[in-house]
Prior knowledge:
The protein has 223 residues and is α/β, with parallel strands linked by helices. The chain has one domain (10-221): Rossmann fold. Helices cover 30% and strands 28% of the residues.
Amino acid sequence: MFVTDTLVLGNNKMARQFYLTSGHTSQGGLDAVFADIIKQAKVISVNVLNVAFPSKDKRDEKARQYVGQFNRLGISAGIHDPTDDIDLTKKRLSRAEMLYLPGGDTEYMLRTLEESGLSESIKGFQGPVCGNSAGAYVLTPAYLRIGRGEPEIIPATGILPIHLKCHYNPKFDKDLRALSETREILALEDPSMVKYEGDVRGGVMHVSGNVWRFFMGEKQRVP
């Protein structure tokens, strides 16, 4: 199992913090979860990578939503669009307190991050990172596309060793059991969160909400 009770990193570096969430943000469905993340991460600002939709109109709509969402929670939000100057975006991200990767079109998000080089910026970022739904999937070894015909395994950034299924419903159990024969999968109901402290080599995990573990074809609740 990838989760360990203790974590030792080279050069005594502090473990990185990743907050992986599942839920719908449009109606404030994750406000309580995000409030907890902000409290734990001890930040007053967040930089949002608004790269989850190919439509500029959709991204502009989402940008307004993200600003309002985080302002409600008492912190400011900087928005980065794929049309922005990439070098300036990378510079701003290097100075950010926390990064937020929102939900949306996972495959578009993966392509955009890779083609722009922003995936490397995320890998090198040492502050807390929060990813919701698609934004969480891109951090994993592979995006497990379930629920739309035959399951697909789409390579992702591999920043973390965790495979995920967000917006979990028992109707996905058959596919999750099959896919878990060769990998460990955490399935998150809405709303819920996995906090992972560490990196691709190993780390410590804490969960809130209903989270299920699928491994070797078996399913069990994560306490």
